[in-house]
Write a structure and sequence with these properties.
Helix content: 10-25%
Distance between the termini: 32 Å
Largest sheet: 6 strands, antiparallel
Mean pLDDT: 94
CATH class: Alpha Beta
Low-confidence stretches: none
Number of helices: 3
CATH topology: Thiol Ester Dehydrase, Chain A
Radius of gyration: 15 Å
Shape: globular
Strand order of the largest sheet: 1-2-4-5-6-3
Oligomer: single chain
Order of helices and strands: HHEEHEEEE
Number of domains: 1
Structural class: alpha+beta
CATH architecture: Roll
Length: 143
């Protein structure tokens, strides 16, 4: 199912933001309630053990969950993350192949949106998952 032009504009704005560019997010597919992206793990995101830092993983999942919610935003609204819970299932190492990020809306609403996200390796194995609660706000409430 296609998404509204205003929702697509929110997604495009997000993907053009400095943080999204730093993370290297690339849009693969978008539909109402679901988004798929890719990201290439970079050396600058490694922790002292040489694997991807948990903060990097959390940022990717926050984007996947938040952008899934954006697919359903009515005109003149946006959402912000109120809660994010991460499950780190496997270590994420440097790889020449991109990671796949999928965000999906579990339940949409006028005030709250509940989402889930997953990071998968090229073999399709889940590496980390998240659940998120988003607060819907009107554009006039930006602060």
């Amino acid at each position: 199912m296609a998404i509204a032009p205003a929702a697509m504009a929110l997604i495009e704005d997000h993907l053009d933001a400095p943080m999204s560019r730093l993370l290297g997010l690339k849009l693969i597919a978008v539909a109402a309630g679901e988004i798929t992206m890719q990201a290439d793990p970079q050396a600058m995101f490694r922790n002292r053990l040489g694997v991807m830092h948990g903060g990097y993983i959390a940022a990717l999942l926050d984007c996947a969950c938040g952008l899934a919610g954006s697919t359903l935003m009515p005109e003149a609204t946006f959402s912000v993350t109120a809660e994010l819970k991460i499950a780190y299932l496997r270590k994420i190492e440097m790889s020449p192949s991109p990671l796949t990020l999928v965000g999906r809306v579990q339940k949409g609403g006028r005030q709250l949106v509940f989402t889930e996200g997953v990071i998968r390796d090229p073999a399709g194995r889940d590496l980390a998952t998240a659940t998120s609660t988003l607060i819907v706000q009107s554009m006039g409430e930006r602060s």
